[in-house]
Amino acid sequence: MKGISKPVRIGLIIFFLMVALFSSLHLVKWAIESYNSSQTQKELQQLYHQGSLTGAGKEEQSAQEPVPGESGSQQNNLPAAGEENATSTGPVMLPEYKALYEVNSDIVGWLNIGNGLLSTPIMQRDNEYYLTHNFYGEEDNHGQVFLDERNSPDLSDDNTILYGHNITSDKSMFNVLTNYRDPQFVADNPIIQVNTLYQKYEYVVSAVYIVSTRPEHGELFDYINYLKFSTKAAKEAYIAQIDRRSLIDTGVTMNADDKILTFSTCTYEFADARLVVVARRLRDGEKAEDFGHNVTIRENPLMPEVWTKLFG
After folding, report:
1. Which of 25, 207, 221, 290 could bridge 246 with an S-S bond, Cβ 3.0-4.6 Å?
2. Nearest-angstrom CA–CA distance, 178 and 208
3. Are strands 159-163 and 260-267 parallel, antiparallel or unpaired?
4. Alpha-carbon distance 170 to 120, whole Å?
5. Are strands 191-196 and 260-267 parallel, antiparallel or unpaired?
6. How far apart are CA 269 and CA 257, in angstroms?
7. How confident is the model at residue 301, as a pLDDT?
8. Where are the domains of the chain?
9. Closest CA to 149 of 159, 162, 158, 168
């Protein structure tokens, strides 16, 4: 067999060198973007915590000042979790958001998962913009966590949905949600803090499941279109669907009176798969330490048809 001619060999060498160069440039570009995204998040956290400290300082100062006409009494400008943060003229923005809001009024709150594993603003515009832009409106493939455009920013809907990218390369954004497939992680981190601009809330993780989004992968569970329910029975039926699918048993029950929070991100076991983490707001009298006990793997959860075909 005749060997490869010299011009062909040279051409192949140039081709593979170009492929290697473009691959290297892509990796460098992604590394720079990952670094910039990380720095952006640190800057946002700093602004948030500075505002919180400023507010705490003002609260302490006002607590030391007597209310006119009530010698020795104290006043508190910030509400406790779940209390109404309002004055006679309307709700008062929590101090940690003031600097952030001046930069971008799309901010509607703050998310804290895993005691700081993910601590980041929550945005709301349309359901596309923050897939490719960061808090400052700069193009960024990491995106930013955002609230479904159809949801109320005060978290008053039956089911509120948050979206974010699962960035596996640098373990950022909603990659943290993949940890909730591990019962031990759920046991150690059962509570998620989600605040609005005016209120502070705690939610307990109730379920974790995987769904398909392509009709050819079998019957779809259209979880993103269940935001409000006309009857308690309809909401209870939705909760039953979640329970059937959960990969873990958290020991946490949900009912029609609960405010539900749904976190949605990509997972990569099959094309266009989604990982969904569901939490409910703490009820009156419940405390964070009440949860995280006896979390176990669920036997035979309801999985997408494509999952069964791929993995049995």
Report:
1. 207
2. 9
3. parallel
4. 16
5. unpaired
6. 34
7. 97
8. 106-311
9. 162
CA distance 19 to 13: 10
Sign of the alpha-carbon dihedral angle for 85, 87, 90, 96: negative
Tokens of 34: 């990952």
- Integer Cα distance of 240 and 243 in angstroms: 5
Q: What φ, ψ does residue 228 adopt, rounded to 5°?
A: -135, 145
Q: What is the pLDDT of residue 20?
A: 63
pLDDT band at 66 (very low <50, low <70, confident <90, very high): very low
Q: Is the dihedral of CA 302, 303, 304, 307 positive or negative?
A: negative
Assess whether pLDDT exceeds 90 at residue 25.
no
Residue with tokens 């949600």: 177
Task: Name the region of 55 (left: φ>0; alpha: ψ -120 to 50; beta: rest).
Answer: alpha
Quick check: 159 and 206 in contact, CB under 8 A? no
Q: CA 24: distance to chain centroid? A: 31
Q: Find tokens 């039953």 and name the residue.
A: 240
Closest CA to 40 of 104, 93, 94: 104
Rounded to whole angstroms, the Cα distance separating 148 from 163 reads 7
Amino acid at 201: Y
- Which 8-state DSSP code applies to residue 223? G
Q: What CATH architecture does domain 106-311 belong to?
A: Beta Barrel (2.40)
Task: Tell me how far apart the alpha carbons of residues 219 and 66 are, in angstroms, rounded to a whole number.
Answer: 64
- Side-chain-side CA neighbours of 209 within 13 Å: the count stands at 26
DSSP-derived letter for residue 85 is -
Q: CB of 209 within 8 A of CB of 130?
A: no
Residue 80 per-residue DSSP state: P
Rounded to an integer, what distance in angstroms lies between the CA atom of residue 184 and that of residue 281? 21
